Amino acid sequence: MIQSATYDSLRGVVAIVTGGARGIGEATVRALHGSGAVVVIGDLLVDAGQALADELGERVHFQPQDVTRQNDWDAIVDLAESLGPVAVLVNNAATLIQATVVDTTEEQFMQCVRVNQLGVLLGMQSVFPAMKDSGGGSIINVSSIDGLLSMNSLVAYSATKWAVRGMTKAAAIEMGRYGIRVNSVHPGGVYTTMHASDLISVEEASSFYQDAALPRVGMPAEIANMICFLASDQASYSTGAEFIADGGSSAGKVNPTAPQL
Q: What is the pLDDT of residues 102-124, one digit of tens each?
């Protein structure tokens, strides 16, 4: 079992996690809570989000949220501010559409743009006044290894995850003078519902990564640990950067016919 790292600087801070009801978002909520943070979960999955908040207790709150709607952002920021200065935003909510370049419809493409790209923009815009007024904060935008590379069938998803990198850098440059750090996290294959964790075992999921440096699927808690590091004061001089947790997939592939250790 992956252990969650804890950071004293997160104790008592108020954090918003979008798409926080399951997967990487849920693991991040648990990790932030474990460090003593007050966490507001945003998600369309009302039952799952409320159940997680009920399980973790009084320092975790759930707010139904569609990240493409400004009114929903206003509501979740208002709730967070009622609990204290907003110090952390984790833009994690995302959608994945698999279709070739030729077969991707305009509707599918724009759905990815609205959730994965516009949702991140609205999030950064919405927390900026609160973070500026309180003297700073940390924004973590969850991109993907497909925001550094790509593969067939991911034209819409990859386009928006690459866009998150550029948005992160632009925001970091603009917001840094106010003490706000903005970084992107790039997970590789992670055992979540987006990776069919509801249909296949960890062992089956790991079989897709046998040519990677670490020949296994990643676990949500491993990504959450990196997110919490970036949220904490331990990353105080890091901004506008990509942080990769992909088991070495982006380093290259193992060649089984060449000499190995």
A: 999 999 999 999 999 999 999 99
